[in-house]
Amino acid sequence: MDLRYPIGKFQAPESFTQEQLQSYIKTIEEAPALYEAAVKELSEEQLNTPYRPEGWTIRQVIHHVPDSHMNAYIRFHWTLTEDHPTIKAYKEAKWAELPYLQEVPIELSLDLMKSIHARWSILLKSLSIEDFEKTYLHPDYNKVFALKTVVALYAWHCKHHLAHIESLKERMGW
User: Fold this and answer.
1) What pTM does this model have?
2) Nearest 5°: CA angle at 20, between 24 and 26?
3) Going residue by residue through the chain (174 aa), what tens digit of pLDDT does each one get?
4) Structural domains in the chain plus CATH codes
5) Cα(110)–Cα(39) distance, rounded to whole angstroms?
6) Strands (E), the chain
């Protein structure tokens, strides 16, 4: 198994159906409970264990996911309220390494994830298929992203980091 990409790298779907959309929204909606269950019984030492050599700790992953998804949620708002906006990029690796996060209880990030995902799911369910065709420009990649691709990406992102946690627990016998 590839420890960095345990479920494989993201592959943008070639088509975009209502069924796929519902599946992506369901993944986003259910992710917080799955993350909470995955880390519920872990000790501080286990939370401070990297999921792979040179990788983030479980604690960093738990803090990263709501940070990342908060940015995605805001990007959706920009794209829905502006004409093809250039979004604000951020240095996710540097965010994950901010020293104060060692002191932040993971419960705060899990609660943040619950709130973001609850609002985001309601937003996603309210959109038309046409809304998912709207686009933004990502300045770091100089690439245009349609919201339909972004929702698929973040459904994958939910599963990707959850697999980091679950595969580490399995390898370590936790």
Assistant:
1) 0.97
2) 30
3) 899 999 999 999 998 999 999 999 999 999 999 999 999 999 999 999 999 999 999 999 999 999 999 999 999 999 999 999 999 999 999 999 999 999 999 999 999 999 999 999 999 999 999 999 999 999 999 999 999 999 999 999 999 999 999 999 999 999
4) 25-172 (1.20.120.450)
5) 10
6) 135-138, 143-146
